[in-house]
Structures are given as structure tokens and as C-alpha cells.
Write a structure and sequence with these properties.
Conserved hypothetical protein from pyrococcus furiosus pfu- 392566-001, ParB domain; 3-stranded antiparallel beta sheet; alpha/beta; 6 helices; 2 domains; 5-stranded mixed beta sheet; about 220 residues
């Protein structure tokens, strides 16, 4: 029987079926998002407790909805699931609980390219498996990338071969673009700046982007 490791502690434990979803449509996740959470749990274990607001007999999930969905999928895949660590969050009513959930999902401060590079010094990270705060920094590295179809009909891009080794970063403003260029020692010119990326969501299409054939 397959199982997962518990790599954290809480004030109590609950079966995941005792936990009730609370956020509704507040945050949308695709099946691929849940698969990434599952992969993370399989690799690193269950590392973060559920944050729970208890109201009457119900245990509402304030933080951990993605993990809750992952548990449902893991059970279908034949995993034997243990009781999970939880931490209880106090709230006088539903309105206050929603206020706390909103603040729990807020991002106070920006993630910068320089900050990420400093933090990850000596650590290899697959950015396809990590979701950084939307609109602040997106980094992905593909080492065997067929760009012919991906960049089809994009006149500002010239592809010389079918294998494209790329680094793509999205920024909030030109100042961050210049800072990243200086940091990486990579000159950003008309061929590598403001390339519209077809897979980005509409909200990202006005941000600054750079791409390079260099590894």
C-alpha cells in the first residue's frame, strides 16, 4: 500500500475527509496544478499543516485547499492516507475567517530576480514546478524546446534552429529589466526584449520579457 510521509507537526491531526473547503471560487486550480502539488508531496512529504477555522462541528480549511484536492486524488490512486497535522486559527465569525484567508493569500513585497538568485545560490530548482506570486517574477528554463511551432507567426522573433535553450523572465517595469540585464551581464536589445509570449495569460501580456538563445 502506497503512503506519504508527514514532515511537519500541528496542534492536532485530522483525517482529510473531516476538513471542509471554505474558499469557494476564490482561487482556481487546474488539474496540472494539483499534479504539481502531488509531485511535491511525493518528493518532500507533507510539509505544511492545514490551517483550520473550527465553526461548530465543521473544520473549515483556510489554508491548504490545493493539498486537500491532492489528497482526494492520492486516495483515488491507491494511497493509504494518515491523519494530517492541522493548526487552528481563531475567528469570531465567517466574515473574520474570510478576512484572515484573504490576508493569508496576500503578498506583501515583491520577488525580484536578484533576490531569487541570491536565495537559490547553489540550489537547483525546476521553475516549471514552482509557482511564484503572479505578475512579479516568472522564470522557466527549457533545455530541449521546439520553438518553431511555439513562436509561429511572431515577426519580431527569428529562430535559427529547432532546439531553443531559453530563459524567460517577466518584470513589472523597465527598471527591473535593466537591473536584471546588469546582474546577468546579458545585453537586452530589440531582438530579446518585448517578445510577446503566446502562452502567457492576458494579464501578463503588457509586462516586460526577455529571451535568449544563450544557455
Amino acid at each position: 500500500m502506497k503512503t506519504i510521509e508527514i514532515k511537519c507537526t500541528g496542534t492536532q491531526t485530522l483525517d482529510f475527509k473531516e476538513i471542509t473547503e471554505f474558499q469557494g471560487k476564490f482561487k482556481f486550480r487546474q488539474a496540472s496544478d494539483i499534479d504539481k502539488i502531488i509531485k511535491s508531496i511525493e518528493t518532500y512529504g507533507f510539509s505544511f499543516p492545514f490551517f483550520i477555522w473550527k465553526s461548530g462541528k465543521l473544520n473549515y480549511c483556510l489554508d491548504g485547499h490545493g493539498r486537500l484536492s491532492a489528497m482526494q486524488q492520492l486516495e483515488k490512486r491507491g494511497y493509504q492516507l494518515p491523519a494530517f497535522p492541522v493548526v487552528f486559527i481563531e475567528a469570531k465569525d465567517e466574515a473574520e475567517a474570510k478576512q484572515k484567508l484573504l490576508r493569508m493569500n496576500s503578498v506583501y513585497g515583491n520577488i525580484t530576480a536578484e533576490g531569487v538568485l541570491d536565495f537559490l545560490n547553489g540550489v537547483e530548482v525546476d521553475f516549471n514546478e514552482v509557482a511564484l506570486p503572479s505578475g512579479e517574477l516568472i522564470m522557466s528554463i527549457d533545455t530541449n524546446f521546439d520553438a518553431i511551432d511555439h513562436w509561429k507567426d511572431m515577426p519580431e522573433f527569428v529562430q535559427e534552429d529547432s532546439v531553443y535553450r531559453k530563459i524567460m523572465v517577466s518584470f513589472l517595469n523597465q527598471e527591473d529589466v535593466d537591473s536584471f540585464s546588469k546582474l546577468m551581464g546579458q545585453k537586452i536589445n530589440e531582438k530579446t526584449t518585448f517578445i510577446w509570449h503566446p502562452e502567457l495569460k492576458p494579464s501578463y501580456q503588457n509586462t516586460f520579457k526577455c529571451a535568449s538563445n544563450e544557455s
